[in-house]
Design brief:
By secondary structure, the chain is an all-beta fold. The protein is 0% helix and 51% strand.
Length: 111
């Protein structure tokens, strides 16, 4: 059974950077999409970025140009590099692969 474990959240100032990692158990994940969603207080969970097994990426308009999603299939790990962070990026970030969610990691951006 696939499990996803995130790391790397925290508190950062406006304009700063953070990097998230998500390690997946099970080699099957190297053949499926992986990505990141986020949920801010009082809001629905929303797509941040997704990357296919072949490396094609999709980003939400709100993070395009600031965030970069990547993956290392040998390590079954997906990454999210977040630059130029804004207070509106504050949320719990969840790692995702079809049928599975990570436990979430808090990202807080102070103004």
């Amino acid at each position: 059974q696939v499990q996803l474990v995130e790391s790397g959240g925290g508190l950062v100032q406006f304009g700063g950077s953070l990097s998230l990692s998500c390690a997946a158990s099970g080699s099957i994940v190297s053949r499926v999409p992986m990505g990141w969603y986020r949920q801010a207080p009082g809001k629905q969970r929303e797509l941040v970025a997704v990357i296919t097994s072949g490396g094609s990426t999709t980003y939400s308009d709100s993070v395009k140009g600031r965030f970069t999603v990547s993956r290392d299939n040998r390590k079954n790990t997906v990454y999210l590099q977040m630059n130029s962070l804004k207070p509106e990026d504050t949320a719990v970030y969840y790692c995702w692969t079809p049928g599975r969610w990570g436990q979430g990691t808090q990202v807080t951006v102070s103004s």
